[in-house]
Structure prediction request, 246 residues.
Amino acid sequence: MKLQERVAIITGSGRGIGREGALAFAREGAKVVVADFDAESGGQTAADIAATGAEALFVQVNVADRASVNAMVEAVLAKFGGIDILVNNAGITADASLAKMTEEAWDRVIAVNLKGVFNCTQAVLPTMIAKKYGRIINTSSVVGRFGNFGQTNYAATKAGVIGMTMTWCKELAAKGITVNAVAPGFILTEMTAKMPENVLAMMRDKAPARRLGLPADIANAYVFLAQEESGFINGHVLAVDGGLTL
Ligand code: NAI
Prediction:
């Protein structure tokens, strides 16, 4: 097993990509912290993992809120005694063209997708530094590299995540911690279910793979980057998009 005995926090793992990541980490032997704003789906993911005989802990958290994030880390340390892996997967959209985007929509997406990643990473840092070991995986997006109509706020956060990934690689490599990003293409989850069908069809046809992604496609990349053996991969942005961006 690739993640035997590792303690992994995956934010936004109640549903979608994060849930698939949590299930995959558990299959690889990790003790999984399902960290989500939504208690119902988060509790369900943790229960589904526990039903397989693996260890899981649900913690309700709002990644945008520092006190909530600090409480999450305290709860994880009390239960498992350390944190080896953090996947900053939680993310939201609030789309509108630049002309129509409200300040509230800008602030909300920045708070979750950008400040949330900063909050969670800063909060797990002391325990990772003490152990001289850590794997941090940030979820960016194809939109963070190339932009997308109607996603000024979202694109800013996902590009910002790439900037933080490269910065933290430089700051933390000497402490035994790697920081990488995954940049998914268009993946079939509730997030993309909000997008118009013709836009999704366009993205499907544009990708050499001629399909949209599945949550398992991204979960697989999370597992790969979270392994101890991936320790020389650092500061990288891994596109998982079926070749969409070529
Ligand atoms: P989703 O909307 O299906 O799930 C997001 C999860 O995050 C939900 O369980 C939600 O409750 C949780 N969440 C939202 N705000 C939170 C907060 N403040 N604190 C804690 N948890 C919170 O999203 P999906 O599609 O699974 O996306 C996961 C990540 O992948 C996001 O960062 C997203 O931006 C990114 N991504 C998704 C793509 C897609 O096509 N679905 C493409 C590229 C990136």
Notes: The chain has a mean pLDDT of 98. The chain is about 50% helix and 15% strand. The two ends are 33 Å apart (CA to CA). The CA atoms of residues 47 and 219 lie 19 Å apart.
